[in-house]
From TrEMBL, chain A:
Lineage: superkingdom: Eukaryota
Keyword S-adenosyl-L-methionine: yes
Record flagged with keyword Transferase: yes
One matching Pfam family: PrmA
The entry's keywords: Methyltransferase, S-adenosyl-L-methionine, Transferase
Annotated protein name in UniProt: HemK methyltransferase family member 1
Biological process according to GO: methylation
Gene3D superfamilies attached to this UniProt entry: Vaccinia Virus protein VP39
GO molecular function: nucleic acid binding; protein methyltransferase activity
UniProtKB/TrEMBL annotation, chain B:
Family: Belongs to the prokaryotic/mitochondrial release factor family.
Any one GO molecular-function label of the UniProt entry: translation release factor activity
A Pfam family of this chain: RF-1
Taxonomic lineage: Eukaryota, Viridiplantae, Streptophyta, Embryophyta, Tracheophyta
This protein's GO CC annotations: chloroplast
Signal peptide: 1-23
Entry protein name: Uncharacterized protein LOC105107329 isoform X1
Keyword Transmembrane among UniProt keywords: no
Ranges of residues in domain Prokaryotic-type class I peptide chain release factors: 101-159
Keywords: Signal
Gene this chain is encoded by: LOC105107329
Record organism: Populus euphratica
Length: 360, 262
């Protein structure tokens, strides 16, 4: 596997400075505030909101199953559910009952209420829903957040939207920590953290003793991850550093008790055929794993061997069975002696998704 | 609740629980003395044919079963030898223990998943293997939260569908049942604390015990009320305070030709 070469090609567009671990300009990137956290300053006539809702619903219905047929995208049922969530995030009163009355097209409960307070202007609501349907802009970028485990994480263009599958990594860490006290008290790393999802999830497990460092190459991801860490009040246990995989972690080499990652793992050839929400809108940097998709996973394996303490734990997400088996084989043969207790774990859809193990 | 108690009663299932081991004790089919129901068919869900241990953290062990869910009413005889192990009552299990008895399934599992998909289909379906009861949740925005909702729903379904037979002659209501009774109950001691309402998660345990009693007295509210130190009206009001409890009782009463409670 010619790691160095593919990495060089892939990042040839990046300036050299982006690899350094501290960039002063980073603080100038201000993350977008998710819709549900914005102040409800727009007073809108409820009849106008109903009109928008009716329009949005018929637009969603007009999609039918055409997106499903073209690229396995969302059908109109799912889009209508998203529409209700958009309303939920836009309305001042988030109570599901007020949204439900919209969802059920039962506007009676709003009779007598002339105006409702929104966190977004009506014009913008029209604009956003148009983008959702016509440009296939992901719903999570529209509302600026994703519900993941018990967290609500801020996301925006340039940051991978955390996936439901990845929720399991936190459970895998939780299991490992509950079986070994030492793991809960040490230093963890989430490399390629994106929105900071896994780092925050595992910080909450080991919050009283352990620490987590999250790294990402993308300055946007770093600022969004910092925003999320602060929103959960975890800045004392979770540190976000910018840089390429393990490079910002040189000072803690050999000291980590755990490494987790959901690196880009989609084979380059598959990128063009992805669901439009993913392929057209999510950062390629977070998806493209090189020709066979496994470039960064292999990089993580060799990095983990150097970074982990003996007995340290790792959990990596992969593209599926093929990559899982390849990685286990690689660790058992090519870099034999580095890791033990290797395990392949399936996601809830039954797809072999994660490789876990321990530093020998 | 898409459960017809009428059809459930027809396929009443009697089985004795395995206590501590994985081996399943062959079902001993018997008609509980207190139950007047005719046993029309007896199904036995043999869990040992499937993967032997299923932990939701280790879905590698997961195998999909094509079997359609059977909606049985499941009846357990209280087993005096059960005192050495948990197991007579699923509701006493912790979330983790209960989850280990379940097969979890996510919808739309086609395709490679992971980074390939922008999935808002965070829906979760739990199948409780020992009973075949299925609970699902789709309305939450994260899979994790849907799992918690599905588990909560499963507990309610277990309370409604799993019946423990009891001996009316020596009946004394368990504490969890006393706790959901109104304070005016004459058998409710002051040590039971305040009345637990339907919104409290502990209500489910009391609800299960109450249904056990009502089934044992063939749906007679006045008879059950006597055993609980309550007037018929007071017990009716308790039953009507929770939708699933009301439906379960009315389905039973309907099957007995009794008028539903309103």
């Amino acid at each position: 596997m010619k790691l160095g070469l593919s990495r060089a090609c892939f990042y040839s567009s990046c300036s050299a400075s982006i690899f350094s671990s501290s960039i002063p300009s980073l603080t100038t990137i201000k993350p977008k505030i998710p819709l549900f956290l914005r102040p409800p300053t727009y007073s809108v006539a409820s009849s106008d909101l109903q009109k928008w809702h009716g329009w949005a619903k018929s637009l969603a219905s007009s999609v039918g199953s055409s997106f499903v047929e073209s690229d396995d995208g969302p059908d109109s049922t799912l889009l209508c559910r998203e529409l209700n969530w958009l309303l939920e995030d836009s309305l001042e009163n988030r109570s599901s009952s007020s949204c439900f009355s919209f969802a059920a097209c039962n506007y009676d409960s709003l009779d007598g209420i002339e105006n409702v307070m929104l966190r977004i202007s009506l014009d913008d609501l029209y604009q956003l829903w148009k983008q959702r349907i016509e440009e296939r802009r992901p719903f999570q970028y529209i509302v600026g957040c994703e519900h993941w485990r018990d967290l609500v994480l801020s996301v925006q263009e340039g940051v991978l939207i955390p996936r439901p599958e990845t929720e399991l990594i936190v459970d895998l860490v939780s299991d490992a920590v509950s079986n070994n006290e030492e793991l809960g008290q040490g230093l963890w790393a989430d490399v390629g953290t994106g929105s900071g999802a896994i780092a925050i999830g595992i910080s909450k497990i080991s919050r009283s003793y352990g620490r987590v460092i999250a790294t990402d190459l993308s300055p946007v991801a770093v600022s969004v991850a910092m925003f999320n860490v602060q929103r959960y009040g975890l800045q004392h246990v979770t540190e976000v550093r910018q840089g390429y995989w393990f490079e910002p972690l040189k000072d803690v080499e050999g000291q980590l008790v755990g490494i987790v990652s959901n690196p880009p793992y989609i084979p380059s050839d598959n990128i063009s055929g992805l669901q439009a929400e993913v392929g057209r809108h999510e950062p390629r940097l977070a998806l493209d794993g090189g020709a066979s998709g496994i470039d960064y996973l292999l990089h993580l394996c060799s990095g983990a061997a150097a970074m982990l303490k003996p007995g340290g734990f790792f959990a990596f997400e992969t593209n599926g069975e093929k990559q899982c088996k390849f990685l286990v084989d690689y660790m058992q043969n090519d870099i034999a002696g580095s890791f033990c207790n290797l395990n392949i774990v399936s996601d809830f859809a039954g797809i072999q998704r994660f490789v876990t193990g321990f530093r020998q | 609740m898409a459960v017809s108690a009428h059809s459930l009663l027809k396929s009443m299932l009697l089985l004795r629980l395995p206590i501590t081991t994985n081996t399943i004790v062959p079902p001993r089919v018997s008609r509980p003395s207190s139950s007047p129901l005719n046993l029309i068919s007896c199904h036995y869900l043999n869990a040992s044919n499937r993967t032997k241990s299923r932990h939701f953290h280790s879905p590698t062990l997961y195998t999909r079963t094509a079997e359609t869910p059977k909606k049985h009413l499941i009846c357990f005889n209280y087993n005096t030898s059960a005192s050495h192990g948990k197991g007579t009552n699923y509701l006493e299990l912790t979330d983790d223990e209960l989850m280990r008895q379940c097969e979890m399934d996510t919808f739309k599992a086609s395709g490679p998943g992971g980074q390939h998909r922008n999935k808002r289909e965070s829906a979760v379906r739990l199948k409780h293997l020992p009973t075949g009861i299925i609970a699902q949740a789709v309305e939450d925005r994260s899979q994790h939260m849907n799992r918690a909702s599905a588990l909560k729903r499963l507990r309610a379904l277990l309370a409604i569908r799993v019946r423990n037979s009891l001996d009316i002659d020596s009946y004394s209501p368990p504490l969890e049942l006393l706790q959901i009774l109104p304070l005016k109950s004459t058998i409710r001691g002051s040590d039971c604390g305040p009345q637990i309402g339907p919104k409290n998660p502990k209500f489910i345990l009391g609800m299960q015990a109450l249904l056990d009693l009502i089934f044992a007295v063939d749906g007679s509210i006045s008879e059950a009320g006597k055993l609980l130190g309550l007037s018929t009206g007071a017990l009716s009001r308790l039953i009507l305070s929770d939708d699933s409890l009301r439906m379960a009782v009315n389905d039973l009463r309907n099957s007995k030709g009794l008028k539903p409670l309103r």
